[in-house]
Amino acid sequence: MITFMNNSDSEEEPCNERTSLMSAESPPVPSYQDGLQASEAGEAQAHRKRRAGSSRGPNNITGGETSGSGVPVRESALENEEEELTLKYGAKHVIMLFVPVTLCMIVVVATIKSVRFYTEKNGQLIYTPFSEDTPSVGQRLLNSVLNTIVMISVIIVMTVFLVLLYKYRCYKFIHGWLILSSLMLLFLFTYIYLGEVLKTYNVAMDYPTLFIVIWNFGAVGMICIHWKGPLQLQQAYLIMISALMALVFIKYLPEWSAWVILGAISIYDLMAVLCPKGPLRMLVETAQERNEPIFPALIYSSAMMWTVGLAKPDMAARGPSQQTWDAAEDGREQLRSPSHAESQMSETRSPVPTCPVTSLEELEEEERGVKLGLGDFIFYSVLVGKAAATASGDWNTTLACFVAILIGLCLTLLLLAVFKKALPALPISITFGLIFYFSTDNLVQPFMDTLASHQLYI
Amino acid sequence: PAFGLFIFTIARDPLRIIILIAGAFFWLVSLLLSSLIWFIAVKASDPQDERLQKGLLIFGVMFSVLLQEAFRFLYYKLLRKAIEGLVALSEDGCSPISIQQMAYVAGVGFGLMSGAFSMINLLADALGPGTVGIHGDSQLYFLTSAFMTMVLIFLHTFWGILFFHGCEHRRWWEITAVVIMHLTVSGLSFCNPMYVGSLVPSYLLMAAAAAWAYLLSGGSAQNLRRFLLCKC
């Protein structure tokens, strides 16, 4: 989901909480920022786009999945004025989202291309119990569909569970869950990743150094994501976490299942966010009612709000007039080997001090940014990574999927600006990505190959 | 060089980046459709017949060129509408980006995408071990591919400017000139591996298109001289 970040009235203590929710895509909610009190130029007018992107990850029956829910943004009084401003700054926000998505994809593709580990098949996760090594096509198709059904139902269960927890205010539980999952993600997966990378490049590293490096990385990551930290660092950590999750998915999901799952997830996202009874929508509405930000752990936010006079990247605390708050949550799911199933949610909130606080008296400049759920990041990267790993067209296909996803993101943001409520970020991009993947792989590739062999140019 | 163009002129402004990506997307769609047609034609024909295959390939290339230009036109239409929207939204009644800038960015988008698709597999292979042209093909394969791609990217940029200008002022001859130039360049590439036949005229055409686009954008020999002299 993509949501706009709005200023929330209260300091958000759950800012650092990570909740592991099923990665559900929360629809991006465009929120318009309340009118800025400050007269300062047009700075305050940040285009608020709310996008709640919650991504849902497959739920593990054992563990939780991280999911994000988006919080709808509340409109403030000066809607109309804001609206105009919103659209004006639309392009800037689109770019603010392009960059992290691109970075994540680049990291994933680079890893896939260079490290062998992630393209070897070493078993499957417990969430996809049916194997795809069957001789007949029909059987394989059936197995992948069954895998998808299992995965999606796990995700649904996890999301509903999370929503229930949220509804009944079991915040501690959610926080604990999130912290656990981010712990696991930060330490274990990084360890595996680092090990594989070092193996690939044949670099030796002794255990004490390894321990120190991973410890530092993980500790700083935990602090940054769950508590306060510089915006850029938070964003970087969130991107890295998304990339790690995506790599795990790419490795452990069998081929056809992966594609069917991607398709099913976008349909699910569409329904979960837009249907009145959808869990994500309920989550967003509940958060709105309580005027709280949605789990910060699962969302990537591109802007932040500044508190008065402070350059602290605080998400909350906004001035009296603004209260819109969008939270996008993103759930990431963690697939783990059957021993643990935890869901992680990481939220990245990166406050972006884009607007300097000019007057110290009461205004808080809020740069409203757009929030995108981390699950969205993960699934985009899974799509591109799978394209890089398994396509016969290699870089052509990867490039085509990349452009398709970016365009889908643009369109989604446009829709966000038009509809002004939480919208699912996955469907359009994933649809474009899938279309382009299959068509480039099968149609364009032979054409380009033939052209290249004759050195013809079109 | 195209990448340098991107960094210096486009990366600053987010709106331009969006237009660039959308341009690349349009090119991609046109490529998709043209390869679909080619694919169908190939499947429907006899795979053994060499001449037929070659003929089909040529047909595919020409068709693709025409489709690309058609998509450029469609993109132009879309950008016109977008400009109207931007003007309506802006405070002072004029659009933050002019149609010429858009033409430039769209051209770069097309060019980058076509260049990327032409070159990237080649580059990836170039990283690995091997000898160029070991089976009797030209040894200059990589070099000429690189130059050809570069000239094509630049040409797309200039064609973008010329094309949009022609559409704006309703000068059909400009548009047809662009189409013919594109067809010519693609046709010239059929002369490969006789590189003299394809590279040199392409560069000449590019120089001509560059001068034309420059004049259209309001430059003149005077400006050029002033620019060069000031800098020196």
Automatic annotation (TrEMBL), chain A:
Q: Where are the transmembrane segments?
A: 94-112, 145-166, 173-195, 207-227, 234-250, 256-275, 399-419, 425-444
Keyword vocabulary terms for this entry: Endoplasmic reticulum, Golgi apparatus, Hydrolase, Membrane, Notch signaling pathway, Protease, Transmembrane, Transmembrane helix
- Provide the membrane topology annotation: Multi-pass membrane protein
Q: Which InterPro entries match?
A: Pept_A22A_PS2, Peptidase_A22A, Preselin/SPP, Presenilin_C
> Which molecular function term from Gene Ontology is one that the record holds?
aspartic endopeptidase activity, intramembrane cleaving
Parts forming coiled coils: none
| Location of region: Disordered | 1-77, 317-356
EC number(s) from the headed UniProt entry: 3.4.23.-
Q: Which family is this protein grouped under?
A: Belongs to the peptidase A22A family.
Please give the record's comment on domains.
The PAL motif is required for normal active site conformation.
Q: How does it assemble?
A: Homodimer.
Q: What is this protein called?
A: Presenilin
Instruction: Please report the organism this UniProt entry assigns to the protein.
Output: Hylia prasina (green hylia)
Question: What's the encoding gene here?
Answer: Psen2
TrEMBL record, chain B:
Q: Name one Pfam family in it.
A: Aph-1
Keyword Transmembrane belongs to the record: yes
One GO CC annotation, please? gamma-secretase complex
Instruction: State its location(s).
Output: Membrane
Classification via InterPro entries:
Aph-1
Query: What keywords does the record list, in alphabetical order?
Result: Membrane, Notch signaling pathway, Transmembrane, Transmembrane helix
Q: Name one GO biological process term.
A: Notch signaling pathway
Residues passing through the membrane, by range: 17-41, 56-75, 102-120, 140-165, 172-190, 196-216
Q: What is its main location?
A: membrane
Which membrane topology describes this protein? Multi-pass membrane protein
Its biological purpose: Potential subunit of the gamma-secretase complex, an endoprotease complex that catalyzes the intramembrane cleavage of integral proteins such as Notch receptors.
> Which proteins does it associate with, and in what oligomeric form?
Component of the gamma-secretase complex.
Family per similarity comment:
Belongs to the APH-1 family.
Protein name in the entry: Gamma-secretase subunit APH-1
